[in-house]
Every structure is written in structure tokens, then in C-alpha cells.
From TrEMBL:
Classification of source organism: Bacteria, Bacillati, Bacillota, Bacilli, Bacillales
NCBIfam families: efflux_EmrB
Classification via PANTHER family: MAJOR FACILITATOR SUPERFAMILY MULTIDRUG TRANSPORTER MFSC (PTHR42718:SF9)
Species name: Oceanobacillus iheyensis (strain DSM 14371 / CIP 107618 / JCM 11309 / KCTC 3954 / HTE831)
Places the protein is found: Cell membrane
GO CC aspect terms: plasma membrane
Gene3D superfamilies for the chain: MFS general substrate transporter like domains, Multidrug resistance protein D
InterPro entries referenced in this protein's UniProt entry, alphabetically: EmrB-like, MFS, MFS_dom, MFS_trans_sf
Major facilitator superfamily (MFS) profile domain span: 15-490
Entry protein name: Multidrug resistance protein
Amino acid sequence: MTDVESLHKKPPYGMIAILFIGAFVAILNETLLNVALPSIMNEFEVSPTAVQWLTNGYMLVNGILIPASAFLIQRFTNKSLFLTAMSLFTIGTVLASISPTFAVLLIARLIQAAGSAVMMPLLMNVMLTAFPIEKRGTAMGTFGLVMVVAPALGPTLSGWIVENYEWRTLFDIVIPIALLSLIIGIFKLKNVTPQREIKLDVFSIVLSSFGFGGLLYGFSSAGEQGWSSPYVYGTIIIGVISVIALVLRQLKMEEPMLQFRIFRYPMFALSSAISIVLAMALFSGMILLPLYVQTVRGFTPFEAGLLMLPGALVMGVMSPITGRLFDKFGARTLAILGLLITMTTTYFFTQLDMETTFGQMMLIFAIRSFGMSMVMMPVMTNGLNQLPMHENPHGTAMNNTLQQISGAIGSALLITIMNNRTESKAEELAQSAMNSIDPSQMPSEQAMATMEAEIMNQAMLQGINFSFFISLLIMGIALVLSLFIRRIGTDGKMITKKKLQTQNKTEYSS
């Protein structure tokens, strides 16, 4: 019996649980700090642009290191990688908790990011190695808990902590969990992923850093600095040129750092395309809804986070269930049904007004999350199932990289659309209001200020609704692409309709 067959007979659930905890705190930490940025800005007396580097820097390091994770996973054992990554993450967390200056806090966040970048690809690769194709849906469904619940819980948890405690508590609560995961990992982790003696191409790392880092920074900054900023279009241009150079270089190499030839597998290429489109659209709920709740309606950050909590819990409950359904029915049915639910609920978000209740928003978001839980992991798992085992590190690295980039592009696109719509609507409403005022009875300064505030609120509301509408159209592209999904069999090949009917008859007769 081979090592792989032995693993498939008895998957290392204990080891996966350790990796699961490590990945969960790492991903949770990515969104945990967002609500606390104003408090940090006040304490260290730094500008909004400077404090934003705590999240942008974290994301950039992830964008640079995740593409390199394919090389790292093939070159080093999963135990040594986990212990190194978790040690870096823990050191960064402790340093952030005690940081006396903003510079130290920023360095701490970058160290954290260096550790967390490897966590998700490593966990995915261990599970792809440990489970046979027919059981991967259930396993990857559990993995979905990390992918979707951790980022959703971040704003709720941080909102409550920032309102009741100082921002350093955000790091203090992570330290014991990270330490426990590290200590258990030292004694309990075993090596299951295969290693190969491959050399790292330094120039590929440089191109990857400028390419993916430039794209991430450029699109992430576009919403705040505007597309006309040289920092925005300059870094995007550098990013595009570097990525093109990286792709050409990898295609010429016998042992590439990141294998782009995996796109010759049609279901992996299709799943990547659907994931890119979905990541662009689904970020709308994570960005636009908090803006509406806090800026337009005046709810607190904690209330904004609380609004999303039921949705996070729904996704947490549904992820393992969706995984089992995937093993039974495949990705196509789940993706189409999930997208129809997600698109229907997103339509309701295009109709937000000043009378929409907190309970209505919470319910719609929870149902939307239910739909989302049926799409992302099944589609991604179906694509990865078509790859040969030795290509799994490249597949997971590619998926994680593309999601980071497309999420940043989607965020920038939707924020830009919202801002443009808000500005044009504000001008239109202001002109209408001025035309309705009798010149002989001009309102007081206080009344004018109140009117301006109401106009801006109404304009932003229109901008948010329109951005949700655009995200709805983007989801429509994902729905059309989902119609072409074909199920992957245990041999890694696509199951045709005829083959599926024969398989079902055989199962029925037995």
C-alpha cells in the first residue's frame, strides 16, 4: 500500500484540526483590525493614509508570498512550514500587542502576514493529499469554515472589543490561541505532503512581488486616492507588465515557481474564472453594506458587525453540509442554485432606503450568505479535483492569489462606481433643492447644513444601491459560466452525461 493510499484510508484528522486552528486565527486577523484603525490613528497621531498601511501592508505581503507557496510546499515538509509560519505569526502578534510606536506596529503586522500567507495554501494541500476525490467535498466544506467565517467574524468581534476595551486586546486574545496551536503542532504534526528537490528562481520571486504586489496595491488604493493618482495607475501598470513577464518566464521553465500550464485543465480554468468573477461581486456585501449601515443610517461599528454575524454563522453551519452535497451531486447544481439565491438577495440590496429595518437587512444578508455557501468551495474543489496530485500546490497557490487580486479589483471597482454615482446624484439633488427654495425666504445656515447632510445621505444611498446592482450583473456572468461545469470523477476526468447516467443506474441496482 502506498503512502497516499494509507492516508486515504485513515486521513490525519488531528493534524488537519491543528492546521485548521492556525489558518483560522491567521485569516481572522486579516479583518480584525479594520474597525480599530481610527483608535490606532488617534493614539499614534498618524494620518488615515499611514494607518491604512496596517491593512494594505498585510495584504501586500500575502499577495507576494502566496504565489511562492507552491514552491515552499513542494520544497519543505508541511510540519516545518507550519511551525515556521506559526512562529512568525505568533512573534508578530506579540510584537503588535506591545508596540510602543506606529512603526513597530506596522513591522509587527508585516511579520504576521509573512506567517499567515502560507497557512491557507498549506491546509488546502494537506487536505487534497489526505482525502480521495470522492470525499474531498466534505473535507473542503469544513475548510470553507476558515475561508468564509473568519473574515466575517472579524468586524463583529473587533467592533465589540474596540467599544469595550483598547485596540491591543485584539492581539491579546489571539496570542494564547496561536501559542497553543504552535505547541500542539510541535508534538503532533506529521509530514504527509511529498517533497521534491527544486531550486527557487529568485527573478521569478522579484517579478511575482512587483506583479501581484503592484496589482493589489494599485486596485486597493484606487477607492481612496482615485484612478487619476500616479500611485494607482503607476503601480497597476508595473503590476501588469511584471505579471506578463512572470507568466512568460514560468512557461519557459522546466521547474516553474508557479505553474501556469495548469490552466490547460478545462474544469480548473473554468473554476478559476468563476471564482474571480464571484470574488469581485461578493465583496460588495462586505464593503457596501457596512458603509450603508454606518454612514447613511448612523449605526455603530459593533452593530454593523452584528448585522453580519448571522450570515457568518449560516456559512459556518452550511460549509460542511455543502461539502457532503458536493460529494453526492457535484458542483454544477449547487453553484446554479446558490447563485440564484445570492442574486435574488443582492437584488433586495439594490432597493435599500431610509426605512429598511435592521432586522430586514440581517435576514437578507443571512439568506445571501446561505446562497454563497453553496458556490465558492464546491466550484473551487471541482476544479482542483481535475489536477494531478503533483500540481495541487500550484492549483491552491493560483486560487488564493487570484482571489486576493480579484477581491481588490472588485472592491476598487464597486467603490469607484459608488463614489461616481454619489457625486452625480448629489449635484442633481442639490440643484433640485436650490430650485425649490424661494429666493425671498432663504433658509438659515443650520437649515442649509441639515439639508446638505440629507442630500449627501440620499446621494450615497443611491450610489450604494447602484453598486449592488452592478455586483448583481457581475454575478450573472458567474451564473452563465456555472452552466458549463462538469463533474470530475475519481480518475480526475470529466464525467459525461452518458457516463453519469450509467453510474447512477449501477448505484441504483446495487
